[in-house]
């Protein structure tokens, strides 16, 4: 994973172009980049994010920001009760217990870099009119 201005990019190798292909995750808008080296990937990701921010400014759209740090979870009453009991037994609020549990699972699983669905969208050479948000 790569970070730039609060945006996170994931990368995978695309043998059809003999290069790495990346995209910014957590957005409904599609922002992609590609490169053959880590340096090129970083530069291209930064340029793609800057292009996205510039395009949003040009069309008067507020750029999407990935994640606010809060989300709603819907579950069964039984699981809600069981989680609340676990949290209370640990001397924690339900929110703190869920955050700790999620953190533990995410660290344990450590998803592989570049794990995202394959797309056929490839970043084309830059032309201001070709950019998409």
Supply the number of structural domains: 2
CATH C-level category of the largest domain = Alpha Beta
**Rg, alpha carbons:** 19 Å
The chain-level structural class is alpha+beta
Low-confidence stretches: 112-133
The side-by-side strand order for the widest beta sheet comes to 1-2-3-4
| Strand segment count | 4
Order of helices and strands: EEEEHHH
Helix content: 25-40%
Q: Assign the CATH architecture of the largest domain.
A: 2-Layer Sandwich
Q: Using the coordinates shown, work out and report the CATH topology of the largest domain.
A: Double Stranded RNA Binding Domain
Mean pLDDT: 82
Tell me briefly what this model is.
With 133 residues, the protein is an alpha+beta fold.
Question: Overview of this structure, please?
Answer:
By secondary structure, this protein is α+β, with helices and mostly antiparallel strands. The protein folds into 2 domains: 2-66 and 114-130, Double Stranded RNA Binding Domain; 77-109. Helices cover 38% and strands 17% of the residues. The protein has 3 helices and 4 strands; from the N terminus they run E-E-E-E-H-H-H. Strands 1-2-3-4 form a 4-stranded antiparallel beta sheet, with helices on one face. A hairpin with a 2-residue loop joins strand 1 (2-4) and strand 2. The chain is elongated. Residues 112-133 have low confidence and may be disordered.
